[in-house]
Design goal:
Length: 275
């Protein structure tokens, strides 16, 4: 019997306009009542996912920044924060400088950028088509010298956003080749996220499951992008939504309906025999 549902948010349980469908909420609440643990796992900073946690209304924790943080806002517990050290941040910035691209750097509390476009566009540059207005956000700082940010504490993620997908993937590959202590993955079609090499959604899910005494084979995981791959592979049942990247579909045990079809809710109702 499965005991933990770990799920990505954007492109997976959120619909194409950025809303959390009522059927997802109903099914997750039903599973929670059955004693099944629900764990949202996002590439976003954890606080930026709190709107959806509040809508779920089950007091569950959330994994943020691709596995760099685990927090429960309702109990006040911050289980871990896995920060990138100053040396690696500088190495990342050196690659951005070589590619002549701006970037974002996230701490647990703020985000910094050296681009007015990224500063003004915010998450909307990535979550294209979203119409939901969010209550929670983090402070964004526009800085002239992005290297100065390397001295900040608790840097948990670095990001490059560019609508030229080939360009973004070249930067991803350069980071993975030249900085072996970091890992860059595609989190959206126009975005790469950079974390510590030992940080991943899959590792964070397994760490939380261990706290609960849950084995990997008792976990179901859902996702749609490259940054969900580790989670799909770590779970006993890894499920890609129908709109997922091909790399995820190739590794998943099962492909369900798209996020626009509320695929996650439909397959969970089948697995747990929920009406």
């Amino acid at each position: 019997m499965y005991k933990l549902i770990a799920t990505d948010c954007d492109g997976t349980i959120l619909d194409p306009e950025g809303f959390l469908p009522q059927e997802i909420i109903r099914v997750f609440r039903k599973l929670n009542d059955m004693g099944i643990h629900i764990l949202p796992v996002t590439g976003r900073n954890d606080i930026i996912a709190r709107d959806y946690l509040d809508e779920l209304g089950i007091g569950c924790p959330v994994i943020g920044c691709n596995g760099a943080t685990l927090v429960n806002f309702y109990t006040g517990e911050r289980f871990f924060t896995k920060a990138i050290d100053r040396e690696n941040v500088i190495k990342f910035l050196d690659i951005c400088k070589r590619f002549e691209t701006p970037c974002k750097i996230f701490t647990t509390e703020k985000q910094y950028t050296n681009s007015r476009t990224l500063y003004e566009g915010g998450i909307n540059l990535i979550t294209v088509g979203y119409k939901k207005k969010m209550k929670y956000s983090i402070e964004t700082m526009l800085v002239e010298d992005i290297y100065s940010v390397a001295d900040e504490e608790n840097i948990i993620k670095c990001v490059v956003v560019n609508n030229d997908v080939d360009f973004v993937l070249r930067i991803r590959d350069a980071i993975n080749k030249e900085i072996p202590t970091l890992k860059a993955v595609q989190s959206n079609w126009n975005c790469i996220d950079v974390n510590r090499k030992d940080v991943s959604k899959g590792a964070a899910v397994l760490e939380y499951a261990k706290m609960l005494g849950i084995r990997s084979e008792e976990i179901i995981a859902f996702g749609d992008s490259e940054n969900d791959l580790s989670m799909i592979e770590a779970a006993g049942l890894g499920i890609a939504v129908g709109n997922a990247h091909i790399c995820l579909k190739n590794k998943a045990d099962l492909v369900c309906g798209t996020n626009g079809e509320i695929g996650v809710a439909k397959v969970l109702k089948e697995i747990f025999n929920i009406a």
